[in-house]
Each structure stands twice: as structure tokens, then as C-alpha cells.
Design goal:
This protein is an alpha+beta fold. The chain has three domains: 78 residues, Arc Repressor Mutant, subunit A (Orthogonal Bundle); 75 residues, SH3 type barrels (Roll), CATH 2.30.30; 92 residues, no CATH class. The protein is globular and about 75 Å long.
């Protein structure tokens, strides 16, 4: 795929749309460019001709379809074809997270998704957290945990998503350790002052751990083969690298901690082959954080 720097950014965007519609929809015409970029009909015609000059033999005009269609030798030059990106965007559109007009989608394919249960995060809260991360400031927040609601002083240094909720990874002034604070549980934010809390001491955050996932050993060979294909395993193994601070969430989300014999392996499907190793890495990271914090007192 050619670099987009081969042409101006605006033109590269239009070329990418042309290739997206040609690849995923099998057709593209002037109206696609007119509607998406607000260009005139003559300009859209120029863009299509320019694309044909930049990527010869990729599209051709089909008088019957009254549109440009991909040729048998079509090879994207400005578009990185990704089924994952397509499906993630489709999911976001169907969940009303983004508008189809903010993507290259024109019409949507017949599809439905399991609706996502959204955790409400106030824009002002997120703004304050992002500002504190940038400035390395301490914030006073009112935080609602499962046991109580009270004021906390935190110094956020990063954001993290556990698959369901967004967290602020932050230094907790009261407990003198690094913790996760669910953004939707922050009821209010007030005050902002500089802090000497050092995020490099958060070794659970800074330590990477490999989660080695295999098909459940109690499955048949045919079942294992299906699972290995589902998860894109290579030689029967999928290695997911994550921060030690997020390993717990990943393991919980995929039920990799459930080792009960009465659970059907067809339901569990996958298995964490290095569970003990991951636990030890996380434990060591916690201990290293405590040591660094104690030395820095």
C-alpha cells in the first residue's frame, strides 16, 4: 500500500473513500464523494479521474451499474483493508457511538448487535482527569465505591479500559498506592494542585505480562481446531500482552480464572496455560511498587 504522503492529505482521504466503497460495497460513484466531502459534481469527477491515474486498472466504469466498480486486479493503494476495523466501526454505528457519516460507510449492511450497556461518564469529569494527567496534578474527587461515598485525593496518570468500563489509573494519596478509579463513579471533581507522585513507580502499570491462551485441554481435537481458528491462534497458542494492572480484568472478562470441573469445557472454550506465572508477575510488580514508594518517602 502506498504512503498517503504520495498525495495531499485531503486527496488521500478521498482516494481512501473510493477504495473503501469499491472494496466493501463493490461500487463507487461521484455522489459518494459529493455527499461525504461536500465537493461539486465536477470536482468529484476530477477526483475519480485522478484516482485512476494514481492507481491504474483498479476501478472501471460500469455503464449498467452507472458506477465505478473494482476490476479483477483491484489492489488497494490508499486503504488498509481490515475486517476488524470494518466490524468495530459497524458495531459503533449500530450502538449509536458514532454516526455513519463519520465513517466511510454509506448504506449499512443488514446487521444487528447486542446493545452495549454504557457507563455514564460526565464530560467535565473526563476533561478534568485528562488535564490532570497532562499536568501531573492532584485532584480532589468525590468517589462512590460499592461500600461508601467520600472525598478522595488522586493523581491520575493514565486511562484504562477493562472491556466494560473506563478507569483512571491514579496514585491514591490516602492509601499511598496506585489504584484504578472507575470514571463513572467519580461524582465530582474539585481543586487541582501540582503533585510529586511519580507514575514510573507504578510497576503494575509499567510491567508487561504475556497471557498464554490455548484451547481448553478437555475439548476434542476437532473442537480445539475450531477454537484455535476462532481466536487466531498460531500453533495452538494465542499470546496476549497486557499491563500487569489490566491482567486481572482480562482474565475475569474471559472467565480464565474459572477452573471448576463442573463447567462444560465447550462453554469455557479457552484456557490460560500460564495462570500461576501471571499471578507471580503481578505479585512481584505490586511488591516492587511498594518498595519504590517506601524508598521515596
Amino acid at each position: 500500500m502506498a504512503e498517503k504522503t504520495d498525495v495531499r492529505w485531503g486527496m488521500a482521504q478521498r482516494f481512501e473513500l473510493i477504495e473503501w466503497r469499491a472494496y466493501w460495497l463493490g461500487r463507487v460513484n461521484r455522489s459518494d464523494l459529493e455527499e461525504r466531502f461536500g465537493v461539486s459534481t465536477p470536482q468529484a469527477s476530477v477526483d475519480l479521474r485522478s484516482y485512476q491515474e494514481a492507481a491504474p486498472n483498479n476501478i472501471e466504469y460500469d455503464a449498467t451499474a452507472k458506477a465505478y466498480v473494482p476490476t479483477s486486479t483491484f489492489t488497494p493503494k490508499y486503504l488498509k483493508v481490515s475486517a476488524d476495523r470494518y466490524l468495530i466501526q459497524l458495531n459503533a454505528i449500530l450502538n449509536s457511538a458514532v454516526s455513519a457519516t463519520d465513517t466511510w460507510f454509506g448504506s449499512l449492511p443488514p446487521a444487528t448487535v447486542m446493545q452495549t450497556v454504557l457507563r455514564s461518564v460526565e464530560p467535565d469529569t473526563l476533561h478534568a482527569i485528562l488535564s490532570a494527567i497532562e499536568k501531573r496534578h492532584e485532584l480532589n474527587v468525590v468517589y462512590q465505591s460499592l461500600t461508601n461515598t467520600r472525598a478522595r485525593a488522586i493523581v491520575p496518570h493514565s486511562l484504562a479500559f477493562d472491556g466494560h468500563r473506563w478507569h483512571a489509573r491514579a496514585w491514591c494519596v490516602e492509601h499511598r498506592d496506585f489504584r484504578d478509579f472507575v470514571l463513572s463513579r467519580i461524582l465530582s471533581v474539585s481543586g487541582s494542585q501540582s503533585s510529586d507522585a511519580d507514575p514510573t513507580n507504578d510497576m503494575e502499570w509499567n510491567t508487561l505480562v504475556d497471557l498464554k491462551i490455548v484451547a481448553h485441554p478437555d475439548l476434542s481435537e476437532a473442537q480445539k481446531s475450531a477454537i484455535e481458528r476462532d481466536f487466531g491462534m498460531e500453533n495452538g497458542l494465542l499470546v496476549m500482552r497486557t499491563r500487569a494492572a489490566l491482567a486481572f480484568y482480562f482474565i475475569k472478562r474471559l472467565n480464565l480464572d474459572l477452573n471448576c470441573d463442573h463447567i462444560d469445557p465447550e462453554r469455557k472454550q479457552i484456557f490460560l496455560s500460564n495462570f500461576a506465572e501471571v499471578e507471580e508477575i503481578v505479585r512481584a510488580a505490586k511488591a516492587d511498587t511498594s518498595r519504590r514508594v517506601s524508598v521515596g518517602r
